[in-house]
């Protein structure tokens, strides 16, 4: 026990003493951490509220129903399944509901910003379904006419939108129009932008998509887990069956309680202000880097891509490791038309959801951009860079007090 406690303390120190710029990470509130670490972890509850395979679920039923109701209220939809253990399992269940016996999915080229479950050869998705892909245009944007042309040629059962590394706004209405023209379902994986959608800071896919999947721990700032939404009652039944009993057994009710708190928190004016801050900080950092001469994308959301190969002559892996020396955590990422392998990459994916939770301001975001540029350009040494990072962090909330 003591060794685990010691390692948890070390991880707490690492989080407190660093600048977290991984776009898929965030810091859950004290309330969420409290219920997620509660005695609810003791309870088996296979099934759904009031339809369980175990006794003693009367209070569990109430908790899960609150989570369902709060998700529906937050995203303005008719049906919600809050049981997926992860975004990957949410996607697996969505595919199963839409294509029970296999089928064809049209999704973004993986190196252009798709997720592993969007057809990667190493994922279950490409082994159970046939995937064809649409690319981004030469400037890194979705080209809806090209997507339409590929859809008309390939006749997919499902067209998939929503991405892991796309820094621009998505027009779900245009995707719906393409789906209607070719007779395909529209599935949206909003995992990265769920917090923006919840607050009206990005177009919602709910009025247009047949099924929407998400995680709850990125911009939504909840516990680690998944979520599935739909307005279609027939698909809702298929989703429920696909989660339990097809892909999962007992739900993690302690995590579902954390999701309930997360949905309540996200449905507040304070959370909307937070998301606006995330977008402002992300844009400020990208603009600072560009003004100094770095090559990076525009951004309409919580992340942008920095081309470190052309900007600094190093790979994404080298840049990631170098920035960790000065307590800045990022992740290497493929960029459109990347010439490097996924193990190395030419870019970094940089996001401001986590640091904005701690109190990062636009001024801080600009300073962070300058530190990144100067350190990767060898304009400043490690000691100086570390001191500058510590100055910024010293004004922020500690993780324990979020």
Write a structural description.
Helix content is 46%, strand content 14%. It has helices at residues 2-16, 30-36, 58-75, 87-98, 124-128, 144-154, 172-182, 194-198, 233-247, 253-266, 269-292, 308-312, 316-324, 353-358, 362-376, 382-393; strands at residues 19-20, 47-48, 51-52, 79-81, 104-108, 130-134, 158-161, 185-189, 211-215, 226-230, 295-296, 303-307, 328-329, 331-333, 347-351. By secondary structure, it is an alpha/beta fold. 50% of the residues are buried. It folds into 2 domains: 30-266, Type I PLP-dependent aspartate aminotransferase-like (Major domain) (Aspartate Aminotransferase, domain 2, 3-Layer(aba) Sandwich); 274-401, Aspartate Aminotransferase, domain 1, CATH 3.90.1150.10. Strand 5 (104-108), helix 5 (124-128) and strand 6 (130-134) form a beta-alpha-beta unit. The chain has 16 helices and 15 strands. The radius of gyration is 21 Å and the shape is globular. The chain has a 7-stranded mixed beta sheet, sandwiched between helices. It has a 4-stranded antiparallel beta sheet with strand order 11-12-15-14. Strands 1-13 form a two-stranded parallel sheet.
Key features of this structure:
single chain, 402 residues, alpha/beta, Aspartate Aminotransferase, domain 2, seven-stranded mixed sheet, four-stranded antiparallel sheet
Structural domain count: 2
Give average pLDDT, whole number. Answer: 97
CATH architecture classification of the largest domain: 3-Layer(aba) Sandwich
Looking across the biggest beta sheet, what order are the strands in? 4-10-9-8-7-5-6
Helix content bin: 40-55%
CATH topology (fold) name of the largest domain: Aspartate Aminotransferase, domain 2
Q: How large is the radius of gyration?
A: 21 Å
The amount of beta strand, in percent, is: 5-15%
- The shape, in one word, is globular
CATH class of the largest domain: Alpha Beta
The structural class is alpha/beta
The major beta sheet can be summarized as: 7 strands, mixed
Q: Which stretches are low in confidence, meaning pLDDT under 50 for 5 or more residues running?
A: none
Query: In total, how many beta strands?
Result: 15
Distance linking N and C termini? 26 Å
Question: What is the name of the CATH superfamily of the largest domain?
Answer: Type I PLP-dependent aspartate aminotransferase-like (Major domain)
Q: List the total number of helices.
A: 16
């Amino acid at each position: 026990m003591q060794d685990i406690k010691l390692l948890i303390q070390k991880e707490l120190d690492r989080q407190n003493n660093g600048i977290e710029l991984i776009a898929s990470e965030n810091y859950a509130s004290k309330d969420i951490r409290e219920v997620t670490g509660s005695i609810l972890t003791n309870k088996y509850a296979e099934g759904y509220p009031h339809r369980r395979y175990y006794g003693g679920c009367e209070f569990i039923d109430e908790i899960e129903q609150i989570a369902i109701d709060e998700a529906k209220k937050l995203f303005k939809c008719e049906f919600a399944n809050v049981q997926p253990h992860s975004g990957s399992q949410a996607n697996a269940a969505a595919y199963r509901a839409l294509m029970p016996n296999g089928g064809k999915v049209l999704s973004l080229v993986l190196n252009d910003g798709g997720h592993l479950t969007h057809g990667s050869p190493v994922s279950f998705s490409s082994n159970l379904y046939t995937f064809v892909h649409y690319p981004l245009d030469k400037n890194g944007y979705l080209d809806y006419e090209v997507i339409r042309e590929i859809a008309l040629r390939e006749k997919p059962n499902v067209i998939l939108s929503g991405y892991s590394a796309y820094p621009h706004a998505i027009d779900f209405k245009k995707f719906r129009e393409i789906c209607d023209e070719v007779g395909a379902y529209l599935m949206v994986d909003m995992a990265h932008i769920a917090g923006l959608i919840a607050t009206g800071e990005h177009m919602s896919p709910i009025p247009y998509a047949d099924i929407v999947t998400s995680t709850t721990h990125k911009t939504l700032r909840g516990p680690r887990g998944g979520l599935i939404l739909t307005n279609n009652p027939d698909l809702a039944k298929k989703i429920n069956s696909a989660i339990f009993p097809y892909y999962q057994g007992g739900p993690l009710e302690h995590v579902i309680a954390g999701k309930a708190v997360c949905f309540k928190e996200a449905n507040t004016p304070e959370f909307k202000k937070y998301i606006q801050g995330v977008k402002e900080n992300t844009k400020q950092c990208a603009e600072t880097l560009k003004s100094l001469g770095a090559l990076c994308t525009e951004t309409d959301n919580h992340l942008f891509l920095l081309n470190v190969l052309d900007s600094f002559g190093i790979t994404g892996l080298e840049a990631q490791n170098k920035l960790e020396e000065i307590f800045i955590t990022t992740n290497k990422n493929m960029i459109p038309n990347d010439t490097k392998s996924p193990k190395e990459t030419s870019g970094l994916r940089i996001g401001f959801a986590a640091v904005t939770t701690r109190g990062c301001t636009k001024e801080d975001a600009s300073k962070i951009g300058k530190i990144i540029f100067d350190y990767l350009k060898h304009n400043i040494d490690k000691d100086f860079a570390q001191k500058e990072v510590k100055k910024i962090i010293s004004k922020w909330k500690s993780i324990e007090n979020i």
